[in-house]
């Protein structure tokens, strides 16, 4: 089953004060770490949506490693990056879309493969990450949900979409929800390595 991974990396990093996509993590950037995790998975394609700092970010990504989409509406929130990716994928023969964030360094290739495998076994259902207190991304959305994803607004991303479809979701557990939004988050993550 052809499933693409969409990495969302278009944000301004306003709480960080600098482009978090370019933060160094073990000799690579936070975004390149996410890209490597995605490329090592069993997906068919990896697509990255960029927006803010696009020229710096583009220069940091090894050429031809992933398909880059530029979101010129990134200032209108995370939803615009999802819509950009869905619009692109609707023109392909992709049957599913795994959405992941560039700022979740504790997400492993193994976890992505669990989600992809779940989608293979339950192709009509969403396969989402179940954290201790919530559902979230990474999550795989079958093509039948693409139109609904295109209705997202603002900076909410897919979380509300997932929670409103709780009965249509296969849950894949993950021990903790962690993303890097602030300098403190980044420093805490580096200490945990």
Automatic annotation (TrEMBL):
Residues 6-165 form the MobA-like NTP transferase domain. It comes from the Bacteria. GO terms for molecular function: nucleotidyltransferase activity. InterPro entries: MobA-like_NTP_Trfase (IPR025877), Nucleotide-diphossugar_trans (IPR029044). This is MobA-like NTP transferase domain-containing protein.
């Amino acid at each position: 089953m052809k499933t693409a991974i969409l990495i969302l990396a278009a944000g301004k990093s306003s709480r960080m004060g600098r482009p978090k996509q370019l933060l160094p993590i073990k000799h690579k950037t936070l975004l390149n770490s996410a890209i490597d995790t995605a490329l090592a998975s069993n997906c068919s394609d990896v697509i990255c949506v960029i927006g803010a700092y696009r020229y710096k970010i583009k220069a940091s990504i090894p050429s031809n490693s992933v398909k880059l989409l530029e979101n010129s509406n990134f200032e209108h929130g995370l939803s615009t990056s999802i819509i950009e990716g869905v619009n692109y994928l609707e023109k392909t023969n992709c049957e599913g879309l795994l959405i992941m964030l560039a700022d979740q360094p504790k997400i492993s290739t193994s976890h992505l493969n669990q989600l992809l495998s779940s989608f293979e076994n339950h192709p009509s259902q969403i396969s989402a990450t179940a954290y201790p207190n919530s559902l979230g991304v990474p999550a795989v959305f079958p093509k039948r949900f693409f139109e609904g994803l295109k209705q997202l607004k603002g900076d909410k991303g897919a979380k509300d979409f997932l929670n409103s479809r709780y009965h249509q979701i296969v849950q894949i557990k993950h021990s903790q929800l962690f993303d890097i939004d602030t300098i403190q988050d980044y420093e805490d993550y580096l200490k945990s390595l």
